[in-house]
Specification:
2 strands, two-stranded antiparallel ribbon, 2 helices, mainly alpha, elongated
């Protein structure tokens, strides 16, 4: 059904993002070993990277946050207006 297809798309997206970001999540854990990186001065430092920004259009923002698509997030206007 259309509803099940939509649900499967959400599940696929979230599972895919979990797989893609798994290494970043592990590296950014402050209780973990971090990642060794070379700094601008050539010194090797242990760092704990984080995902600081995620750019998405409105439909993808709804998908990422599991919120309803179709209503305006900034005003009270209906879609028909």
């Amino acid at each position: 059904s259309k509803r099940q297809f939509k649900l499967r798309k959400y599940q696929l997206f979230h599972k895919s993002m979990a797989i893609i970001l798994a290494s970043l999540k592990k590296a950014g854990n402050p209780k973990g070993p971090g990642v060794k990186m070379v700094g601008g001065d050539g010194s090797i430092r242990r760092v704990y990277p984080v995902l600081a920004a995620y750019v998405a259009d409105y439909p993808e923002q709804c998908l990422v946050t599991c919120t309803k698509y179709g209503t305006c997030p900034k005003c009270q206007r209906k879609a028909e207006d």
